[in-house]
Amino acid sequence: MRQGSVKKVLAIASGGGHWVQLQRLIPATDEHEVVFVTTIESYRSDVNGHRFYVVADANRWNKFALIKMAIKLAWIISKERPDVMISTGAAPGYFALRMGKLIGSRTIWLDSIANVEELSMSGAKIGRYADLWLTQWPHLAKPEGPYFAGAVL
After folding, report:
1. 120 band by pLDDT with thresholds 50, 70 and 90
2. Taking the alpha carbons of 55, 56, 59, 64 in that order, is the dihedral positive or negative?
3. d(CA 19, CA 123)
4. Which pLDDT band holds residue 12 (cuts at 50, 70, 90)?
5. What is the DSSP string of 7-43?
C-alpha cells in the first residue's frame, strides 16, 4: 500500500468513446497516482505527467492480438502493482480487471454510456471480477449487478 491514503490507480480503456469516458473520471483521482493504459499512442498527450502504456487493440475475432494484449497487460500490472484498477471498457479493461483480482487490486468497471440497449460483451462478463460494477442506464441495472448510481458520464 502506498504512503498515507494515496493509492496507485491503473486506468484502462480502449480508444474512442471508452477513452473519452475514462478521461471524464480522472478528476476523481486527483489525490492519487494514476497510470494509464490504452490502445492508441497519440492519447499520451492527454495525460502528460502520468505514466502511460499502449497495448494491442484486440477483439474476439483476433485471438493472436488478444494474447499479445494479455501478455503486455500482465507485464504492466506486475510492474505497477496497482491498488485500484478502473475501466470503461472494452477488451483491455476486461483482461486487466481479471488480472487485477489475482494480485488483490480493487476493481471498478463502468460500462460505456453508449450501451443503451444492453451491456457491452465485456461489461456483461466482468461482473464477478469487479468490486464495483456499474451501468449508466437504470433499466440495465439488476439486483446482482451491474448497479446504477446515476449517469456519471
Report:
1. confident
2. negative
3. 15
4. very high
5. -EEEEEE-STHHHHHHHHHGGGGTTSEEEEEES-GGG
The answer, yes or no, to whether residue 94 has pLDDT greater than 80, is yes
C-beta separation of 95 from 70 below 8 A: yes
pLDDT of residue 10: 98
Task: Give counts: helices (H), strands (E), the chain.
Answer: 4, 7
Q: Report residue 56 as a C-alpha cell.
A: 494491442
CA distance 52 to 115: 27
As a residue count, the chain comes to 153
At 97, which amino acid appears? L
65 CB-side CA count, 13 A? 11
Within 10 angstroms of residue 151's Cβ, the number of other Cβ atoms is: 10
**How far apart are the C-alpha atoms of 83 and 124, rounded to whole Å?**
24
The model's pTM: 0.92
Q: Give the pLDDT band of residue 101 (cuts 50, 70, 90).
A: very high
